[in-house]
Amino acid sequence: MRQRHRVIATAVIALYPPSWRGRYGREMHALVEETGLTRGAIVDLLGAALVAWVFPRSGRHGAERRRWRLEATLCTCAVAWAITLIGMAGFSRGIDDSPLPGLDSRLPNAAFHAAETSFTISAAVVALVVVFYGLVVFAPAVRRRAGSIVLPVALPSAAALSWTAASIGMGWLIPRLIGSHGPIDRRIVIGLGFALLAWAAAGGLILMACAVGGGMALRRSHLSEQLLIPGAVGGAVVAACALVSSGCAVVCLVSLLESGRTAPGDLVMPGIGAALVLAGATVAITAAGRGATAVVGALRRM
């Protein structure tokens, strides 16, 4: 097996929950070494990793099993919210950057604002959860100099700050290039298009890295059930908000299309965004639903 395939296999298997890797990690490495690694196999492994998080099998019982379930719920909802954020950005920009014809009608306008309001609520809940676990997990880890907990959060956060700085720089530069006197050079337009695509792709990857890094730090902290309950409850609220946002986004798109005033081509970008929101909502609702039993069990034991 080529070295590049070994690196890819190791990276993909690292995405599985720790309990899964502890039980099946060596066997999976041996199987990949024996059968090879194709693109289809990578897709299958990634899909199985998602299933392993949403439907964890820790092989444990009682409080330890509930703790694994609560951790999986919180981490899965965090990644699902990151997907929802990317989708809502595309949906909102596609609809309202230059307001589409038909948005001034009552139904699409109400559905659009309901989707954004629901997402804003979920963002506020995420902020509260981040602050809570920042105080409970990250601050003590910094004091103890626990690199295994600090680095998974610090590195993506530094990348996010760099991306934000690049965004500010692009916001300053682009208007000056576009607003320059005379016709705009075609090469500048093409370059700006590629730069914006790279900027959006980098933002999405960094956002996912922040969600995954936060989940990794959380797992390595081995928190008790009681400290994981607020995160699981917050995940349930985020899941419900994502479901409402996805439903309202679909209603908005359908009503705009049926109005006859909006060209179908104008709905491609917001349509892709709505699909991402729906995907994130589906994952979050599934994880939160399974985590609810663990929350109930933990509350009964308190």
Short description:
By secondary structure, the protein is mostly helical.
Give a verbal description of the structure:
This protein has nine helices and no strands. The radius of gyration is 22 Å and the shape is globular. The protein has two domains: 1-54, no CATH class; 66-301, no CATH class. It is mostly helical and 302 residues long.
Our estimate of the beta-strand percent is under 5%
Number of helices: 9
Give the strand tally: 0
- Give the % helix: over 70%
How many angstroms separate the termini?
51 Å
Structural class: mainly alpha
Compute the average pLDDT: 82
The secondary-structure element order is: HHHHHHHHH
Q: How many domains make up the coordinates?
A: 2
Please give the structural blueprint.
Layout lengths: L2 H11 L4 H18 L3 H16 L7 H35 L9 H39 L2 H32 L7 H36 L3 H35 L8 H34 L1
Helix pairs in contact: 1-2, 4-5, 4-7, 4-8, 4-9, 5-6, 5-8, 6-7, 8-9
Task: Kindly list the characteristics that best describe this protein.
globular, mainly alpha, 9 helices, 302 residues, 85% helix
